[in-house]
Amino acid sequence: SNPLHREVHQDMEQPLCHYFIASSHNTYLSGDQLLSQSRAEMYARVLQAGCRCVEVDCWDGPDGEPVVHHGYTLTSKILFRDVAETINKYAFIKNEFPVILSIENHCSIQQQKKIAQYLKEIFGDKLDLSSVITGDPRQLPSPQDLKGKILVKV
């Protein structure tokens, strides 16, 4: 393993869209996408491995609590709140560059509001609430500008 690969030596001042971003698909799954367990700890694992974009599939859960799982399968369900708390704890241990939550939203308006409430409560000032007009990608902020921030992509 080349120790230089652990160091950032690229220019991190370019717009975010100029970079390849280490991303995880079905991050919550501990195994196959039909029958396996969903686990909040999977987010801790991939973030510590250097992943900067994680997938969160959100569905309406019981008692007004949104859950994360692979829809229309037998994968187990975990609370969105637990996922957000795990991401908050592990997001910036490996590095300070932004973490993107790729949210696949299947929730009712009521539970979407609950998700927004948890995002604000759990991430606080780390949550990037600035809006970007997507017409011109050159106007996107850079990874350097977004250090320590959680971005939401829906």
Describe this structure in words.
GO terms for molecular function: phosphatidylinositol-4,5-bisphosphate phospholipase C activity. This is Phosphoinositide phospholipase C. The chain is an alpha/beta fold and 154 residues long. It has a domain at 51-129 and 148-153. The protein contains three helices and five strands; from the N terminus they run αβββαβαβ. It has a five-stranded mixed beta sheet. α1 (41-48) runs parallel beside α2 and α2 (80-90) runs parallel beside α3 (109-123). The longest helix is centred in the C-terminal third of the chain and has 15 residues, at 109-123. It is globular, with a radius of gyration of 16 Å. The N and C termini lie far apart (35 Å).
Which descriptors apply to this entry?
single chain; 154 residues; alpha/beta; five-stranded mixed β-sheet; 3 helices; 22% helix; 14% strand
